[in-house]
Design a protein that fits this description.
By secondary structure, the protein is an alpha/beta fold. It has one domain: Alpha/Beta hydrolase fold, catalytic domain (Rossmann fold).
Length: about 450
């Protein structure tokens, strides 16, 4: 890998995870758009409502340059990122403390580049480059399904990798000069959601009007429930079915970074400036975006796949209603919640994403390395790009939380990321009810300004 980490900013969190399962959490229809109870969690994949209809959007940005997103404290939760209720594991009788449940935070490694090189050695193993011939459909007159867009050309359902769900759509502005590009990653708990949700917002028009190309991607699915995840034979499968061949979270994150590499590979064909790339996402997509922005460059010089020779680095990142880290053992300290209560909320989801029991995630060499790979909170350093994190929901106390989605998208995670970002010397901004620092508008405005300045 090309980038050396600058400095070592360490945080050690001492927690104890006890038990192995999560209790069922109430499910809410993720597509409901009518009134909901005032104690509902924020919609975790949106954060944007149309000013006239209240209909949900999938970006977490204001429709116009209106500053903060509208209050979403009563928008329906995205149940896809709540704990699975149909696959709860039986914890059985309480076991004596074996020591495996004790953890002092993810392992801190001296050379993250080397760990990632080793970790993803099999990422593309056995895959051909035939997917490069699948360039999707090209519409020279633009996207007929999106309205009021500036003049552009549209590429639909392009393969950026060898798996069926490695797909993207791209809107190319008309320009005599290479343009920046902004990449949107949808949310949905890694088990639902679709990239076409971008069309439902004003982001396309705003970005294209600013002369910025726009891509939106799909990625492989995770398992929906913990039983299937624990029984999985391989972590890096096809990922096109959430019940039979889900992919472990680290490979999903790697897919997201691959999409950046693909756009650089196509930069000459699509008139893109490879030095002006932004990425942003909502909920699960926000985690993908921030992981991509924080890990060392994943380029592999001389790789047989020319896409993987490209840089994965970006110049700006937006994090909307996302998670603080996927090293879950950090959450008690970062969110200020009781560790056993958190486990009760999140244990099944953690297992579904990691293919490991809670104890094995923190108490085995495999689990500790995986935790380190997933820990974008720790990866952040001064060499990382400008970041904005957005969450306009209420800072709920533990006693007021009614479902796991409210934990997964709690605003305290955004406070922690912003403070981490400041502490390591990054350029960063936060937009929330209680804290608004570094920027006065929404994510799209932040992306436009930073790409113009870069």
């Amino acid at each position: 890998m090309l980038r050396q980490r600058l400095g070592s900013h360490l945080l050690t969190v001492s927690v104890v995870w006890l038990g192995a399962v999560a209790c069922p959490s109430p499910q809410v229809d993720p597509v409901e758009t009518g009134p909901v109870a005032s104690d509902a969690s924020p919609h975790v994949d949106a954060g944007v409502q149309s000013p006239d209809t209240g209909a949900r959007r999938d970006l977490g940005i204001a429709i116009e340059d209106s500053g903060l997103s509208r209050d979403v404290s009563s928008v329906p939760v995205d149940a896809s990122f709540a704990v699975d209720t149909g696959s709860a594991l039986d914890a059985g009788p309480e076991r004596p403390d074996s020591g495996l449940s004790r953890d002092t935070g993810p392992e801190v490694v001296d050379d993250l580049d080397a760990l990632l090189d080793r970790w993803f050695a099999d990422y593309n193993q056995g895959q051909s480059t035939d997917y490069l011939e699948d360039e999707g459909r090209h519409f020279v007159d633009g996207d007929a399904q999106a309205q009021d867009l500036p003049e552009h050309q549209y590429y639909e359902n392009v393969s950026y990798g060898p798996f069926n769900r490695n797909r993207l759509d791209f809107w190319q502005p008309v320009s005599a000069e290479p343009t920046p590009v902004a990449v949107f990653i949808h949310g949905g708990g890694f088990v639902s959601g679709e990239r076409q949700s971008l069309r439902q917002t004003g982001a396309l028009r705003r970005l294209l009007s600013a002369g910025i190309g726009v891509a939106t991607i799909s990625y492989r699915w995770a398992f929906r429930g913990p039983r299937a995840a624990l029984a999985a034979q391989i972590p890096n499968g096809s990922g096109d079915n959430q019940d039979t061949n889900g992919v472990r979270l680290d490979y999903i994150l790697r897919d997201c970074a691959r999409s950046i590499q693909y756009l650089r590979f196509r930069s000459a064909d699509w008139n893109l400036d490879p030095n002006k790339v932004a990425v942003w996402g909502s909920s699960a997509g926000a985690g993908c975006a921030l992981w991509t922005a924080s890990v060392p460059d994943l380029a592999q010089e001389g790789h047989s796949d020319p896409v993987l020779q490209q840089s994965s680095r970006v110049q700006v990142v937006g994090h909307n209603y996302g998670q603080v880290t996927y090293a879950f053992q950090r959450w008690p300290a970062l969110l200020g919640f009781d560790r056993d209560w958190l486990l009760n909320q999140l244990g099944n989801k953690q297992t579904s994403l990691t293919h490991l029991s809670v104890e094995d995630f923190t108490g085995t060499p495999l689990g500790r390395d995986l935790s380190t790979v997933l820990d974008y909170y720790q990866h952040l350093d001064a060499s990382d790009p400008p970041m904005i994190t957005v969450n306009n929901s209420v800072d709920l106390a533990q006693a007021s939380i009614t479902n796991a989605s409210q934990v997964l998208h709690h605003v305290r995670g955004h406070y922690a990321l912003f403070e981490r970002c400041q502490g390591v010397g990054m350029t960063c901004a936060i937009r929330s009810r209680a804290r608004n620092e570094g920027f006065e508008q929404d994510i799209v405005a932040f992306v436009i300004q930073r790409l113009a300045d870069d």
